[in-house]
Amino acid sequence: MRQDIIHIKSVSQFHHLVGSPKPKHPLVSVEKDLKYGDVSDMIGVKVVSDLYLIVFKEGVCGKLTYGHNSYDFEEGTLIFFGPGQVMEYESNPERDSDHKEAWRLVFHPDLIRKSELANQIDHYTFFDYDLSEGLHLSEDEKHTIEDILEKIVKEYEQHIDKHSGRLIIANIHLLLNYCLRYYDRQFYTRSNLNSDIVSKFDRLLKEYFRTSKVNDLGVPTVSYCAEKLNFSPNYLSDLLRKETGKSAQEHIHSFIIDKAKNKLLGSSESISQIGYSLGFEYPTYFSNLFKAKTGLSPKEFRNLN
């Protein structure tokens, strides 16, 4: 009987699912020169994984149907999946020669559990980006990533000793740091596009409060805004932070505080009424946010002015 949801708990289970040979290490694997097999049986099946997965694809620029915008470089794309994300085949990739998967790196959280990387892994927010928000590499960037990958491959291919795990982790950490740098470059090279997104984000917030959405849905969330702008919440926050210095959540709070100040000084509404009108279910939540952002309670702000 076909399963519509498959839960991948181990590297070996992942290898079995994709038809790869057994991994040489229980907690990590790296595979190069990959070719897709027939995954027609997997179309429509959701896969939930406990693993970290990094996939490099070649030849995807310009024909990538899940992208929202044109890409910066044509040398290939890195795509990241973190634990808990849902993956799903919508079509059989073996029939699409433009979507060649060149290599993939997969590791279990237990691999890094006692390392410094475990303390920093949440800083690499691109593991929670959507598929369309991959990292598009220049030729030089691609070579740098491949050089690091070769070091991981060398350790993975040889006999496991007391040093191999530590060296694999160190090189994964290095690879992720370079990816962080290259994502910064990607945000920077798309500065004009990003500026337009900042404007769209501000217009979205204004429209949210002009309509009944604030009454129906409460305070706008990052997830709501990201969905309306066709981004993942993490990617939107990182984009805004690079462009303006403030995350999506900080933008929302700043917008609410500005509206609150106008209402406090320009109306006779009670503080509770103002809180409700701004989408807060409880007035104390509004008062706490206002004081956290301004250093004054709403009442103190109104009396001071």
3D architecture notes:
The protein has 305 residues and is of the alpha+beta class. It has two domains: 185 residues, no CATH class; 102 residues, Homeodomain-like (Arc Repressor Mutant, subunit A, Orthogonal Bundle). Helices cover 48% and strands 12% of the residues. It is built from twelve helices and eight strands. It has a five-stranded antiparallel β-sheet. A three-stranded mixed β-sheet has the order 1-3-6. α9 packs across α11 and α9 packs across α12. The longest helix is centred in the middle third of the chain and has 26 residues. The radius of gyration is 23 Å and the shape is elongated. About 6% of the residues have low confidence.
Please outline what is shown here:
This protein is α+β, with helices and mostly antiparallel strands and 305 residues long.
Structure keywords:
305 residues, alpha+beta, Arc Repressor Mutant, subunit A, 2 domains, 5-stranded antiparallel β-sheet, 3-stranded mixed β-sheet, 12 helices, 8 strands, 48% helix
